[in-house]
Design goal:
The chain contains 20 helices and 16 strands. The chain is of the alpha/beta class and 528 residues long. Helix 3 links the parallel strand 2 and strand 3. Bound molecules: S-adenosylmethionine.
């Protein structure tokens, strides 16, 4: 056993991010796509997030899947206190957070898990701690379970290793805690980059990485670069460790990576025969494409099916990207894509019903098109049929207000939206977090707090309070008359856009008429 606490940053908490790749619905989709039998999520199942950070993933997913029993484990007491705080405020009853190191779990009595997630872990712990972690996985993953693991990958990450070494060297000479050290290294790094000195000389990847670091949250940067171990890994190294536990690769949680034609440039495609085994294919893909990050799914070798499985009862719904790209009218080439989008857009039909509605096209083609549209982010996968499109008359009436359907979502809005300007809310319909950001999100806050009629005045106050400059096509809107016009237009767009979307996905609902928003539920800082 290793003393892992001495290796990992403990003096600065990690960020409060949500990652939709971890949703059991997405993991089930990927497994099924690759022939692995999956578990229905409307029956009881177990899920464990090892190294859960502040617990946002576990709390949001627990709200999305009331039949799931979720566990989050982390050895940082601040993370577990934060996770428990959000859980209590959000009233989640199907999630348990454990303040334990991985090695301590080896002594624990936990249930066996249908899903285990290792998000942002194995590239930041030593081989010794990783061995303990894998023993935990081996002991607690069910024979039919799925393991999700993401990591910084070689050879894609190779050019960044000198940058990591330089960050550590500079940080060693800076007084203070990890955040102070991280802030302190950014200036000297920028100077080195300006002078085209190592590690930036002839290293475009390091230059690009610095440009993103300057905008990143320091708490993220500390965990990414200041741990004593920063260990990008080869696909084969991870696959070997997995094989030692009897686990085999069964897909990528990034949907497009499961399709050669969507993930490999045309000039290399003939190197990837359709019937090739997973391991040599993924190994070569990693070498050739030099991806710096992988999101892999593993299952027990004996559970690895290969046959095509039916998606008949799966539901997909439009993400809006097709419309945003102005692809409303299909051309000959994408006629079937457009037809599938239009027939499935509102998420009211499952695939079997969609194929029935599109009888003019062969079923296999329609199903292939759906997988493709999902991989290209034109469709979302849903856990349930999407609610019928509400009209203003039967849902949220002007003169009235709206509220969040789940206390967790209100807690997330009060805690995270105001701090970060964006957050992810739980949707039982989507079976995932849904990103809330931008001006329409601010309008939602205002309608939530004071109802439709008073909302525009509150939006103005919120804009002033947060000193938000409104940009249209990159240009700041400073003229008060222009700003007013824009506010009216955005408010109207909200009524037919996000208001409808979030209601359909079960994130918000109408406040009963005559029921004002309780003061303690308000989100706006000037009202709370
Ligand atoms: C980069 S963060 C990722 C957090 C979360 N999975 C996410 O993606 O937002 C890594 C997490 O692993 C936890 N961790 C690292 N080593 C650990 C160990 N030996 N036992 C338990 N937790 C550990 C850290 O405290 C930290 O919260």
């Amino acid at each position: 056993m290793t003393d892992s606490a001495s290796e990992y940053v403990l003096d600065a908490p990690y960020t409060w991010q949500f990652f939709g790749y971890q949703s059991p619905l997405v993991l089930n989709y990927i497994a099924r796509l690759n022939g692995v039998p999956t578990l229905p999520l409307d029956r009881p199942f177990t899920y464990c997030d090892l190294g859960c950070g502040n617990g946002v993933n576990c709390n949001v997913l627990a709200e999305c899947f009331p039949n799931g029993e979720f566990y989050g484990v982390d050895f940082n007491p601040e993370h577990i206190a934060n996770a428990n705080g959000l859980m209590a405020q959000g009233g989640c009853t199907n999630v348990t957070f454990l303040e334990n190191s991985f090695e301590e779990l080896l002594e624990s009595f936990l249930p066996k898990f249908d899903f285990i997630a290792l998000h942002g872990i194995i590239s930041w712990i030593s081989e010794g701690v990783c061995e303990d972690l894998y023993r935990v996985v081996d002991r607690f993953l069910k024979p039919t379970g799925l393991l999700y693991v993401n990591y910084n990958a070689l050879p894609g990450w190779e050019p960044l290793l000198p940058l990591v070494a330089k960050i550590k060297e500079l940080a060693a000479d800076i007084e203070g805690d990890s955040i102070a050290k991280m802030r302190g290294v950014l200036g000297p790094l920028a100077t080195l980059e300006f002078n085209d000195a190592p590690p930036f000389k002839d290293n475009p990847a390091a230059k690009y990485k610095l440009s993103t670091m300057l905008k990143d949250d320091p708490n993220y940067l500390v965990h990414e670069y200041l741990n004593s171990v920063v260990r990008p890994l080869k696909f084969d190294t991870v696959a070997d460790d997995m094989a030692a536990m009897g686990l085999v690769f069964c897909g990528s949680a990034e949907p497009a990576d499961n399709h050669i034609d969507l993930s490999v440039p045309a000039e290399f495609r003939d190197q990837f025969p359709a019937d090739e085994e997973d391991r040599p294919r993924e190994s070569r893909k990693s070498q050739l494409l030099k991806a710096g990050f992988r999101r892999d799914l593993y299952c027990r070798a004996e559970h690895r099916g290969r046959g095509a499985q039916s998606f008949d009862d799966w539901v997909f719904f439009d993400t809006g990207q097709w419309e945003q790209e102005g692809r409303g009218e299909p051309t000959n080439e994408d006629e079937i894509l457009g037809a599938v989008i239009r027939a499935g857009a509102d998420g009211s039909r499952n695939i079997a019903e969609l194929c029935e509605a599109l009888k003019g096209y062969p079923k296999d083609t329609v199903v292939d098109v759906i997988h493709r549209l999902f991989a290209e982010k034109y469709l979302n996968v849903a856990a349930q049929k999407v609610l019928p499109v509400p009209t203003l008359a039967d849902s949220t009436l002007p003169g009235q207000g709206l509220r969040f359907t789940a206390p967790l979502n209100l807690a997330i809005m009060q805690k995270l939206f105001l701090a970060d300007g964006h957050c992810d809310l739980a949707s039982r319909i989507a079976g995932n977090g849904r990103r809330l950001q931008g001006m329409q999100a601010l309008i939602l806050v205002a309608v939530h707090d004071v109802g439709f009629d008073a909302a525009p005045a509150l939006v103005r106050q919120l804009i002033d309070h947060f000193k938000i400059t409104w940009h249209v096509k990159g240009k700041a809107v400073t003229d008060p008359v222009e700003r007013e016009k824009l506010l009216t237009q955005t408010f109207e767009a909200f009524l037919s856009g996000d208001l409808v979307k979030w209601t359909r996905e079960g994130v918000i609902e109408a406040l009963p008429p005559g029921a004002p928003m309780p003061a303690e539920n308000r989100i706006s800082p000037m009202l709370a």
